[in-house]
Amino acid sequence: MPESPIIPAPRPRQPAPALKWGILGPGGIAGRFVDALHRQSDQQVVAVGSRALARAQEFAARHDIPQPVGSPAELVGLDEVDVVYIATPHDSHRAMAELALNAGKHIVVEKPFMMTEDDARSVFELARHNGLFAMEAMWTRYLPQADVLAQILEAELIGEVTYVAADFGFVANYDPKHRLFNPDLGGGALLDAGVYPVSFISSVLGAPRAVHAVGSLAATGVDDHAQLSLSYERALACAVTSLRSALPVTAVIGGTKGRVEVDSPYIRPSGLMLSTKAMWGPDPDAVRWTDTALAEPYDALHYQAIAAAGYIGEGLVESPIHTHQETTAVVGVLEQARRQLGAR
């Protein structure tokens, strides 16, 4: 009988300097990010900024941050802040990023990095011009399972990749004022959730040659359901997202010699199955890897911060595993899909 494949272990992470972080946008994901840094790293969160000082003060008290301030400009003007984590609504990402970069601060911007390809390109150009680091906070790229998957693909354990599929969607109660459905805040399934499967596909196949989107719009004009077919020279990919369907949140990569299935939810620490047989259906000889490192899944948000700190310490202006070019291309795919759907 042929031997079962061996799944590689995640590679050791390089040490990173302890940087001082400022938070722009004291919302839910920012709270999880700060808590993860407190519990799992020596990164220091020294300030939080909001246009509403009371909101910044409440967030600072809840997350043990020493300095709340009442404006983005005040936050980026603090000498003690090395890097700014931007978690404001999607429509404000460019303005907040430019404000921080022009103040001499490195930036990590929540996904989607920007709403348009032109905006992404412009912000990255400004970062490079100023000699500053800029990165999208696509935390899935820095999970241990992402490195395991990268090693599997580098070793060609499943042969040539010919198919990738990923999804992320959930049922959201319709509220035209909520950021998910409000076009003025960059609402819609694609920008909020669809960025995950599109980015996953990009991590495997790169930028597609063509994008074809089908879906539907909510009453406010934002997309609430979408399927993207992405074409490549020798591969096909499919990304599905929704605000009105409970999707399985899985990802699969098919190749000429086998396949990898990433466990649900693949967007946070989970595990994967590797089959090195060119067969359909269950493989009794498939092997598994499971990530059991963290009891709290969202503590994995600290991985991206440590990666960013390490790159900044090396004097880099971009993440070598999630480059400016790739991030811009992903934003471009989302923009094309939204345009095809007629989304606001």
UniProtKB/TrEMBL annotation:
<comment type="similarity">
    <text>Belongs to the Gfo/Idh/MocA family.</text>
</comment>
<dbReference type="Pfam" id="PF22725">
    <property type="entry name" value="GFO_IDH_MocA_C3"/>
</dbReference>
<dbReference type="InterPro" id="IPR000683">
    <property type="entry name" value="Gfo/Idh/MocA-like_OxRdtase_N"/>
</dbReference>
<keyword id="KW-0560">Oxidoreductase</keyword>
<dbReference type="InterPro" id="IPR050984">
    <property type="entry name" value="Gfo/Idh/MocA_domain"/>
</dbReference>
<dbReference type="GO" id="GO:0000166">
    <property type="term" value="F:nucleotide binding"/>
</dbReference>
<dbReference type="InterPro" id="IPR036291">
    <property type="entry name" value="NAD(P)-bd_dom_sf"/>
</dbReference>
<feature type="domain" description="Gfo/Idh/MocA-like oxidoreductase N-terminal">
    <location>
        <begin position="19"/>
        <end position="134"/>
    </location>
</feature>
<dbReference type="Pfam" id="PF01408">
    <property type="entry name" value="GFO_IDH_MocA"/>
</dbReference>
<dbReference type="GO" id="GO:0016491">
    <property type="term" value="F:oxidoreductase activity"/>
</dbReference>
<feature type="domain" description="GFO/IDH/MocA-like oxidoreductase">
    <location>
        <begin position="149"/>
        <end position="261"/>
    </location>
</feature>
<dbReference type="InterPro" id="IPR055170">
    <property type="entry name" value="GFO_IDH_MocA-like_dom"/>
</dbReference>
<protein>
    <submittedName>
        <fullName>Predicted dehydrogenase</fullName>
    </submittedName>
</protein>
